[in-house]
Amino acid sequence: MGQRGRKKGAIGEESRTLLLKIAADEFAHQGYYETKVSTIVSRAGLTQPAFYLYFQSKEVILQELVERFRTKLFDLTHKSRLAPGTEIETIHQRIAVGITTVFRFLQEEPNLTRIGFIVAPEAEEIKKQLVALIKENLISEQKDGFFHDHLDMDIVAESIVGVIERLTFTKLLNGLKDPESLANDIVRLLLYGMLVD
Amino acid sequence: MGQRGRKKGAIGEESRTLLLKIAADEFAHQGYYETKVSTIVSRAGLTQPAFYLYFQSKEVILQELVERFRTKLFDLTHKSRLAPGTEIETIHQRIAVGITTVFRFLQEEPNLTRIGFIVAPEAEEIKKQLVALIKENLISEQKDGFFHDHLDMDIVAESIVGVIERLTFTKLLNGLKDPESLANDIVRLLLYGMLVD
Amino acid sequence: MGQRGRKKGAIGEESRTLLLKIAADEFAHQGYYETKVSTIVSRAGLTQPAFYLYFQSKEVILQELVERFRTKLFDLTHKSRLAPGTEIETIHQRIAVGITTVFRFLQEEPNLTRIGFIVAPEAEEIKKQLVALIKENLISEQKDGFFHDHLDMDIVAESIVGVIERLTFTKLLNGLKDPESLANDIVRLLLYGMLVD
Amino acid sequence: MGQRGRKKGAIGEESRTLLLKIAADEFAHQGYYETKVSTIVSRAGLTQPAFYLYFQSKEVILQELVERFRTKLFDLTHKSRLAPGTEIETIHQRIAVGITTVFRFLQEEPNLTRIGFIVAPEAEEIKKQLVALIKENLISEQKDGFFHDHLDMDIVAESIVGVIERLTFTKLLNGLKDPESLANDIVRLLLYGMLVD
DNA sequence: GATGAATGAGGTTTCATTCAT
DNA sequence: CATGAATGAAACCTCATTCAT
């Protein structure tokens, strides 16, 4: 399809996408309230009414970004759960892979990550869902005898999410560390503990 | 005491304190932007100009609350560091006590906690300071041979703060868990790990 | 007739007519300002620019509807005046027939009626013309000795229009009464009065 | 009370009253949609936010005016009903007095009248209430044998309101006729009819 | 004949903040 | 110490209308 081969409505779709991208950037870096529709459109080379051609309101565009984040995040965690680890994998490896996957996604979508974890009104809800998912996995592995019986997997799951969140913003998104090594750090710490025996 | 029996200035100080308390509540529960000066003053039984008698601006009153949080938090962690643990204490106990102290404070000041950890623009900075403090302690204990050499104490400190933050909001501030047991959970998890040997 | 069998322009005329009809409906029921061009075109299955293919502006389409109403209304009253009543007719009958004719038209064009009587900026002007017409008739009949000399036919004509307008909206357009009986009610009331002799 | 004797809040009350008065004028002459808050406040020598100090919205200030109209109108018709006509009064006089009272009020409040009868979304409702009130009176007088049995008092009441409305705008509010003579015209017409016996 | 895309202009409303008393 | 009254600034949003295809 040549440069004149634009599909019907292609240019509108482009504008919409552009607005979404810029909005994500603004929301991520300025927060909801400091993000002005006027800024978004002017960065897109458009005027204000154009914004309302594609989104009902400022709130709604945020929602769209949040849903995008939520969906991708849970799709991915779901998929990674189904992907059967090779038999040989140690539990360490299996968990590390899961966490790596999450980190990879967060790294690929830094703006959505800031939005979904911080800016969104539903941020807490999203994290809760993540906790629930992780907790499920942990419990099944606990039943399999991998983890101490006395561990409260709710607390552990919350902790993991707390750690992931913190390291995401302090080490991952600023390029200080990569997904793999971060995941490894976490797994090693949590599995074996800090104490010298 | 007659209507003129109030000590001069007392009532002003009272109003100021009241405004601060209400502002903390509003900021904590509505966030900065959804907190309206008009709401604060009306809850205080005052009028808008009265607000500006005590605080230069909405931003400034937030600052004051943030500084209050920061100061208390670091005073406390400082003091707790100086308080010499009994010789006999295990490392487990020593760390647990430190974390308990932090949790106790956060629990006593739930509004300031939300403000210092979430609402404040300097939230990240505050957490970084906390990380630094914890990291110092950890390194010294690592040098004393308590912890594995290979552990990156920066990551560990970040993780601890991440865990503390998360558990504060999901377990502590809503009364689901108390400081001691939370601290214990954390210490046990981090010191000994999850793995069955 | 195949899909290309339409006579050129036919479809354009159809669109124009459709837009007019829908606009009449919207103006009649929502008023001028609550009627949105976007609504009109979308109800017509068209897009906004299409609207401007047929009408210069929202104001102009209203004008066209108003003129349609005005023309029809005065055509009809004119014609009904020329149609010679049978010699035998009582004055009662003659007037009743005139009013019936008006009501019939208003009933057939409820939307135009609402527009011409309420929505149009020229509503007052239109009613004034109607008053003038009626007044002329009345005066000639007064000269013929049918009506009391002392009656101010200006007031009477205004009254008749007032009554017609009110009964149109409260009894005619909602189907509560038909043109004939309404006309009769009016004529009886005005000719013979309410009083028991 | 001297010129410095202003009661607390007096000046605010003045602004509010002024805004109401100007708004009434604007609504009456420009209609709701062509009335701009900016015009109202600038005519009052104020700025836009001042408007919202006294009224929640443009819609609400219209409502307040409408209610003012409605209340006054019905208060007055109520009172005039209770005021016992002298025994000696003819039915003609009694009715004329009632209509005169209404006209006097409409004349005193030309802006509210335009608002209540034309501009208000509830205009129709208000007129309906007026019709109901008049109808009641008429029926009781019909039972007393003053009026023909065959008259449908619903139609008559609607007619009276139609006439009042029309004559108000075409004869009363522009000073062409006074309340008394208008009322007389109406009563004479409706009671005795137009026909020469 | 019709559309996708966009805009100019303007309107209502909100809120932190200040002035004069 | 406090208030009544007001404002500057700006945000979001709507709508009729047009341009280029």
UniProtKB/TrEMBL annotation, chains A, B, C, D:
Gene3D superfamilies: Homeodomain-like, Tetracycline Repressor, domain 2. The keyword DNA-binding applies. The lineage of its organism: Bacteria, Bacillati, Bacillota, Bacilli, Bacillales. Pfam families: TetR_N. InterPro entries: Homeodomain-like_sf, HTH-type_Tx_Regulator, HTH_TetR, Tet_transcr_reg_TetR-rel_C_sf. Keywords: DNA-binding. This is HTH-type transcriptional regulator YdgC. PROSITE patterns: HTH_TETR_2 (PS50977). Residues 13-73 form the HTH tetR-type domain. SUPFAM superfamilies: Homeodomain-like, Tetracyclin repressor-like, C-terminal domain. GO terms for molecular function: DNA binding. Residues 36-55 bind DNA. It comes from the Bacteria. Signal peptide: none annotated. The gene is ydgC. It comes from Paenibacillus abyssi.
